[in-house]
Amino acid sequence: MRTSNFGASPRIKSRPEQCELHGEYQRTLIESFDDKHRVTGCPRCRFDAIHGTDEAARAAAVESKQWEAVNAALFATGIAARFRQCSLDNYRTPLAGQKAALDECRAYVDQFQENYDAGRCLLLLGNFGNGKTHLGCAVLKAVVRQYGATALYVPAADIIAAIKSSFGRDSAVTEQAIFEELASVDLLLIDEIGAQGGTEFERQALHTIIDARYRNMFPTIVTSNLPSAELAAYIGDRALDRLRENGGLAVIFDWDSARGGEV
Predict the structure, then answer these.
(1) Which residues contact 43 (CB under 8 A, 6 or more apart)?
(2) What is the rounded distance in angstroms from the CA atom of residue 228 to the CA atom of residue 48?
(3) Per-residue pLDDT at 259
(4) What is the mean pLDDT of the chain?
(5) What is the SS3 assignment for 127?
(6) What pTM was computed for the model?
C-alpha cells in the first residue's frame, strides 16, 4: 500500500487474547476519527458472523467492518485534529450569509456524483475566521461517508513545504510522488491559498496541481482569504479559470470574522 505524504492512519494498540472457538488472536483498540475508539474482537468470529445465518450477529459484524473502512478513509484525508469534528450539521448560521454558504456546501455534497463527473470545483473565498475551513472539511467528510470517495485536506503552505523538502539529497519522497498524490484523489481541499509569500515557485507549484486535476476532471475545493481578483493574481488567471470552468462554484464569505466563537 502506498504511503501518503499528507494523509494519516488511525493508531492501533494490540494485545493477545484467547477466543474460545479459534484460539489466540490480536485484540485491537482502534483510534476513532471523530467518535469513540473501538475494540475489535476475534477476526474469525467476525468472518463467521458475516457469512452466517444469525441476522443480528451478521448486521453487527458488517457494521464493524464498514466502520473500520470508513474510519481509515477519514484518517486518510489528513484533516487536522482541530477540524475533525467539523460537519455541515454543526456549522452555525446566525447570519444570512452563513446560511447561504452552508446551503451551497450541502448542495455540492447532495449533487456530488454530478459534480464529480463534471470535475466541478468549489471555491470558498473571503474574510478569515468565518468557517471556510470548517465547511471545506465538512464537505470532504461527507463525500467520504456518503459516496466512498477518496479525499485529501492539505494547507497550501504544507504543499509548498513538502515540495521544497523533496529537493533534499536524502529525501525519501520525490516531487513527482507529491504531485501524483495530490492529482489523483477524488476530491482535494487546498486550504488557505494566499497565506504564503506569493513567489513564482509557489504559483507554479499550485498551478501544476490544479492543472493536473483539471485535465483528469477531478474536482478541487479551494479556500482563500483573497477575493477573486487577488486570487487570480496569486495562482494565475489560467489556474483560476480551470477552477471556475464548467460551473465551478464560488461562495463568498463577506461578513465579519467569527473567530473567537464557534462557527
Answers:
(1) 25
(2) 56
(3) 55
(4) 92
(5) coil
(6) 0.90
Buried b (16+ CB within 10 A) or exposed e, 70-97: ebebbbbbbbeeebbebbbeebeeeeeb
Is pLDDT of 84 > 70? Answer: yes
Q: What does the alpha-carbon distance between residue 242 and residue 98 come to, in Å, rounded to a whole number?
A: 26
Q: Where are the beta strands (DSSP E) in 51-111?
A: none
Would you say the C-alpha torsion 170, 172, 178, 179 has a positive or negative sign? Answer: positive
- The domain locations on the chain are 12-76, 81-253
pLDDT tens-digit series, residues 168-221:
988 889 999 999 999 999 999 999 998 767 788 988 999 999 999 999 999 999
Q: Which residue has the cell 523538502?
A: 165
Cell of 94: 446566525
**Side chain identity at 47, as an amino acid letter?**
F
CA distance 232 to 255: 22
> Topology of 81-253 in CATH?
Rossmann fold (3.40.50)
